[in-house]
Amino acid sequence: MSDTSTETRSWGQRLSELFPFDWELLRHAGAEPVPLHLKRWWFCLGGTPMYLFIVQLVTGIMLTFYYVPSPDHAYASVAAITQEVRFGWFIRSLHMWSSNFMIVAVILHMLRVYFSRAYRHPRQLNWMVGFLLLGVTMAFGFTGYSLVYEQLSFWGATVATNLAEAVPLVGPWLAYFIRGGPEVAEETLTRFFILHIGVLPTAALVLIGLHVLLIRMHGVTELKFEGEEKVADKERFFRFWPDHVTTELLIGVLLMYLLTILSLIWPADLGEPANPNVTPEHIKPEWYFYFNFRLLKLTSLKVSVALTMALGAIAFFWPFIDSWLERRFERHDSIVTIVGVVAFLGFLLLTVWEAFAL
Amino acid sequence: MNEDSGATRRDLLAAVLMGGGLVLAYGTLALQGFLFLLPKRLRPKTRLIYAGRIDQFAVGGVRTIYDLDGNAILVKRGETDFEAFSSVCPHLGCRVHWEAEERTFFCPCHRGVFDADGVAVSGPPADAGQRLAQVTLEVDDRSGVIYLEVRDRGRRSA
Amino acid sequence: MTLTTKRYIVAALSFLFLAALLVVAFQEAKRHRVEERLEPVITARNKGCVDCHSKDGPALVMEWERSQHAAFGVGCVDCHGADESEIDAWQHEGAWVAVLVTPIDCARCHVREYEEFSQSHHAKAGEIMASLDNVLAEKAAGTPDNIADAVNGCWQCHGSIIRFARDAEGEILRTGKESKPVFDWQTWPNSGMGRLNPDGSKGSCHACHSRHSFEAKLSRSPENCGKCHMGPDHPQIEIYNESKHGIAFYANRDIMALDKQGDWVLGRDYSAAPTCATCHISSYMTPQGQTVANSHDVGERISWTLRPVVSTKLNLVVFEDGFKEDFPHTRELPEIGETLDTTEKYVENEQLATRTVPRRVARIVTWEERRAKMKGACLNCHNDAFVDNFYRQFDSLVELYNEKFAIPAKQIMDELIADGVLRRDAPFEKTVQWVFWELWHHEGRRARHGASMMGPDYTHWHGMYEVAKHFYQNFLPAVVEAAEETSPAMGQKYEARVEALLAQPEHVWLKGLSPEEAEALRQMYAERYNQ
């Protein structure tokens, strides 16, 4: 250690003795060149869910100040938030709209990644991490909505956990584990609560961290679009800071603005409180599960679960299926596009169908 | 911040407007969030609750009446009037109880002792010159009904 | 786009966002917060009751929860709690309770109201057991084994004597594992105003203050009184509905402050109309700006009694122990300090009994003073000449009824009894007894009540017209008929008696109008109807 007793050092120097962070590393990371194609908005769909996740984290923590995870008090506490707490309706509505936006953004991001083939070698792992994030996001939506303990919360949870029972081999055990018992009861709410505010956020943070790390490690895929001339290096990239960051800021503020407007016009509502003795006429899950629900209505319990699992597996392992297709077929590019279009349209069709059906 | 070209006024204006706008907007949001987290009433309201009738209290005796939050209030009937004390010890918040034979209020945590008027006479509360907080009590002379003025946190039932 | 442009866009969006947040803040400030209605206070001693009865009788608990009692934490045990020694007490889920909540129980807190009510005419409503009304219900309409008319009819307004089902030894029957005492089914349920309770108290507070919400709004509404104060023998609610008072009320019900907590004062809290309670019970403002307190003694402001055959003004004698007795103005008033033998009714062995109790006179309230108390309410809307003249109008009708019909008819009835034509112990043997009964008890009362509360149609067509018609068409002939049944000689005696009566100036019109009057009459019909 150098003799520091008599030297005059700047405050910055003193601070860096206490906290010896390598700022150079940060500057280097900040100077990371961002390929020009990221200036296109289609490519900002990755940052969007992350930003919305932060919104969810913040509003979610705030809501937890007032929410009580017990069947006797859950609904009343949500009602209190909506009706009594200052700006309670607003924070809750932000949370609600942000969750919908996040799922949409994740799906759109996934579509972008798919159609731009960014999952290809060596980025297969990242695709899988991303797919897991999709699952986590939907699990967030499901558990979160159940916490309100409205009629649909309760019965939606009942239907979903009954679906889980149909999973081969581990089904019954899985359902038992999720519910905390043989049927949806007080234990279920506690489990959903800790899943929603503890387990899933942790999983999300880890997966997001992994996702970003993988991106940085691999570097952003440099894409060329038709008609772009080969240009000088200097013009192939733009700066992360301040340019890309400003773009992200823009998206952030835009999102907040939209969420606020939606919260003003269509604030989060409150249905009938959960009644375990009365099943409502029409049970529906949240809209992002409509495709699943419609599938269930079209086929049977076992078939729809099996189908969902199969499709999920295909999606999860897609990078490997894609490379197999590449080896097998000459026009594999078109096949991939067609598969993507068909899958997405199918999802849309089932979703819209369920939305209009009773 | 780094600029490619020289710092022109237009660039500076843009940066300032952006920075200012972001600070104002997110700042407002943060303020609203802060208000959200603030407990509903800064000064809790009170309300009267029925605490019994005069003839239910023995002269010189102390009875416990519970307030809306389930805290014990000690109601003492003196020779000529009634007094009500909070059972929360002013020292560190333990609960005191009435010792009928000693005619004192006793706090078991650090052996604080209060006289029949709620003034601390021994133990840490006495050292600090403390007394038991008094609860407003009303007696309707005509009917003999006793009311206590207790805190109303506005809790809703399930 | 350049960085600068982007920054401008971010700035613009930020301000848009800020604007939206300001709208949010505005909405928040404007937001109608859920009204601060006091939540019911469920104290520890009542929690057990509420928890169970929220399922077993939930509406009852819900009613209590929205009551003023619940706002103060006065709950189940505070009213239903009973001492082990009480005759109807039983141990229910660990607590000693009684089903019956009597005025004495209410007086645990509502002392003044109890003192006023217990000496009032309402509390005495159940003492009609020895009256002719009772005879009609139990004997005329009932059988020895079935007095359902009394049970379902009379007693439901006037009040029953609460009795218990007993075994052969006279012990109270008990049922269930908690040994709940069994009521005599004929006497309970009953919320009659003058219900005679096992604890010796008279009356039932919840006759007017319906349980378990005990809403002031209900008690102050005229319909509340109308449950009992209606019908052919005392159509007060019908008269009120006919009167301008009633019309004003129904048109302005929503500004009557009926659900105001605490005092409800005419001339301060409301002004549009009086309800029954306004004039007979409630507070009103005096010209000096004072509030006259309410009183649950409903007779305090009554100067006439319109009940009996012949109406009299009513003085009030108050004794030292609070006992009150109405003295008709025909009865000589005692001196203050004098000891009088008062008769009071009470319940012994579940039967109504009478006893004589000597009491010392504490003060006298004359009928003028009682009327002045009533006038105090009137004067909030009407001036003195108006009010005084009204009372003269009213008085004159009562006197007309008294003088022209009631007193003469009663005289004849007394003579018939004295002559043995009628028997006191067979009160409804002959037609004339029924006719006479209705003459004073039904149409006679209708006329008097109609005048008392400004119901002109009840005063005349339902009232004095029918009094007159039945007097001439039914009563007088029935008198003669009854006499003839005894003997021809008696028949002749009473025919002469009736003739003598009809020769009186007020009755002579029956035989014929004067020529001028007849002509005027004929002309009127010719002009009006061309007939």
Mean pLDDT, all residues of chain B: 86
CATH architecture of the largest domain in chain B: 3-layer Sandwich
Query: Which regions of chain C contain 5 or more consecutive residues with pLDDT less than 50?
Result: none
How many helices of chain C? 20
Quickly give the structural class of chain B. alpha+beta
Using the CA coordinates, give the radius of gyration of chain B.
27 Å
Sheet with most strands of chain C: 5 strands, antiparallel
Main sheet summary of chain B: 4 strands, antiparallel
Provide the succession of SSEs of chain B: HEEEEEEEEHEE
CATH superfamily of the largest domain in chain B: Rieske [2Fe-2S] iron-sulphur domain
- Would you count the extended β strands of chain B for me? 10
The helical percent of chain B reads 10-25%
The Cα radius of gyration of chain C reads 31 Å
Largest protein-protein interface = B-C, 32 and 35 residues
Supply the key terms:
heterotrimer, B: alpha+beta, Rieske Iron-sulfur Protein, three-stranded antiparallel beta sheet, 32% strand, elongated, C: 531 residues, alpha+beta, 20 helices
Question: Can you tell me about this structure?
Answer:
The complex is a heterotrimer of chains A (358), B (158) and C (531). With 358 residues, chain A is mostly helical. Chain A folds into two domains: 231 residues, Cytochrome Bc1 Complex, Chain C, CATH 1.20.810; 75 residues, Helix Hairpins (Orthogonal Bundle), CATH 1.10.287. Chain A has 14 helices and two strands; from the N terminus they run H-H-E-H-H-H-H-H-H-H-E-H-H-H-H-H. In chain A, helix 5 packs antiparallel against helix 6, helix 11 crosses helix 12 and helix 11 crosses helix 14. The relative contact order of chain A is 0.13. The mean pLDDT of chain A is 86. In chain B, strands 5-6-7-8 form a four-stranded antiparallel beta sheet. In chain B, strands 1-10-9 form a three-stranded antiparallel beta sheet, with no helix packed on it. In chain B, strands 2-3-4 form a three-stranded antiparallel beta sheet, with no helix packed on it. The model of chain B has no long low-confidence stretch (mean pLDDT 86). Chain B has two domains: 38 residues; 108 residues, 3-layer Sandwich (Rieske Iron-sulfur Protein), CATH 2.102.10.10. Chain B is built from two helices and ten strands, in the order H-E-E-E-E-E-E-E-E-H-E-E. Chain B is 21% helix and 32% strand. The longest helix of chain B is centred in the first third of the chain and has 29 residues. By secondary structure, chain C is of the alpha+beta class. Among the domains of chain C are: 41 residues, no CATH class; 79 residues, no CATH class; 146 residues, no CATH class. Chain C has 20 helices and twelve strands. In chain C, strands 8, 9, 10, 11 and 12 form a five-stranded antiparallel beta sheet that branches. Chain C starts with a helix and ends with a helix. The model of chain C has no long low-confidence stretch (mean pLDDT 92). Chains B and C meet through helix 1, strand 1 and strand 10 of B and helix 1 of C.
